[in-house]
Design brief:
Blueprint: E1 7-9, H1 19-28, E2 39-46, E3 52-58, E4 65-74, H2 77-93, E5 99-107, H3 110-120, E6 125-135, E7 138-147, H4 167-172, H5 176-192, E8 196-200, E9 205-209, E10 212-213, E11 217-221, E12 226-231, H6 236-245, E13 248-253, E14 258-263, H7 265-270, H8 272-287
Helix pairs in contact: 5-8
């Protein structure tokens, strides 16, 4: 293959390409932002006399929403404040969703990265730097996350606000057979640490040691399958193993470093060794 050196294009004063062009490209394929397999919920969303939100994106698996503001050229104070303001409006309007503001600009200086970092202690913010590259007669967009949001921990992992439940609660939800799978996986985990016990909550079944939550593996029973969230760093080797086994995997939770797999009873019987290895490695990772 022949190497072609790309030429960077700055859009602020470009005669043809503009902010709307960037918005349209993201709207066509939100995954190009590099934030996951997102879907477009709205574009140029009216913000009640506060202007318009460029893009509202959503993760279809977690229902997390991303308020995205695009700016050509260098980011500035107004861009940051506008993103936070729109994030706050959407969060107040739809509190049932988890929300995150996304700042997209061609140039994000270290000064403004420091400013965004200060806000990030209280407001979930992601800063993405974009570059438009010309290669021959074609142009492409490249997005790079230069500041990820602060890792705060899942609400489901905050036991103080989590409604407790018991095994009967999950059995009443029609998950008795699936609970048998939880028991099998729990037995595998106890081989690594006999102290591990199941801790029942209304939205998931976690793990605990002497009553203290230790949710490096989380179970979410459904009527016909079990979602298992396994705390392991993302790796090509792990991706290949899961794909090669043909397991029904959900998008990786980068923020929480968790693989998610949908398991049926047949899956567990067929891939018992692989699943057991994943659980063992998750325990080793947690203990490292």
């Amino acid at each position: 293959m022949k190497f072609v050196r790309p030429r960077r294009i700055w859009l602020l004063d470009h005669a043809e390409l503009n902010e709307k062009w960037v918005q349209d490209r993201i709207a066509e394929d939100p995954s190009i932002l590099g934030l996951g397999d997102l879907v477009l919920k709205d574009k140029e969303r009216n913000q009640l006399r506060r202007g318009r939100l460029d893009l509202l994106l959503q993760d279809p698996d977690t229902d997390r929403r991303y308020e995205v503001e695009v700016q050509l050229g260098r980011t500035d104070e107004s861009h940051i404040i506008r993103t936070i303001e729109y994030w706050d409006i959407e969060k107040r309007r739809y509190p049932q969703y988890d929300h995150c503001g996304v700042i997209v600009a061609e140039d994000i200086t270290s000064r403004f990265l420091n400013v965004i970092s200060l806000f990030n202690s209280t407001v979930p913010l992601i800063a993405v730097q974009m570059a438009v590259l010309e290669v021959g007669e074609n142009v492409t967009l490249v997005f790079s996350t230069v500041l990820d949001e602060l890792n705060r921990g899942l609400v489901d992992e905050d036991e103080e606000v989590q409604e407790p439940a018991d095994r009967g609660y999950w059995e009443a939800r029609g998950s008795r057979d699936i609970l048998g799978m939880v028991d099998e996986l729990h037995a595998v985990l106890r081989q690594s640490d006999p102290r591990l016990e199941l801790k029942y909550n209304k939205s998931y079944i976690g793990l605990a040691i002497n009553g203290v939550p230790d949710n490096f593996v989380v179970f979410k029973p459904k009527k016909s399958f079990l979602v298992v969230e396994i705390g392991l760093p993302e790796s090509a080797e792990m991706d290949d193993r899961l794909e090669g086994a043909g397991l029904d995997t959900m998008p990786y939770l980068k923020k929480w470093e968790k693989y998610r797999v949908r398991l049926t009873k047949a899956d567990l019987a067929k891939h018992e060794q692989l699943i057991g290895d994943l659980l063992k490695r998750a325990h080793e990772h947690r203990s490292s």
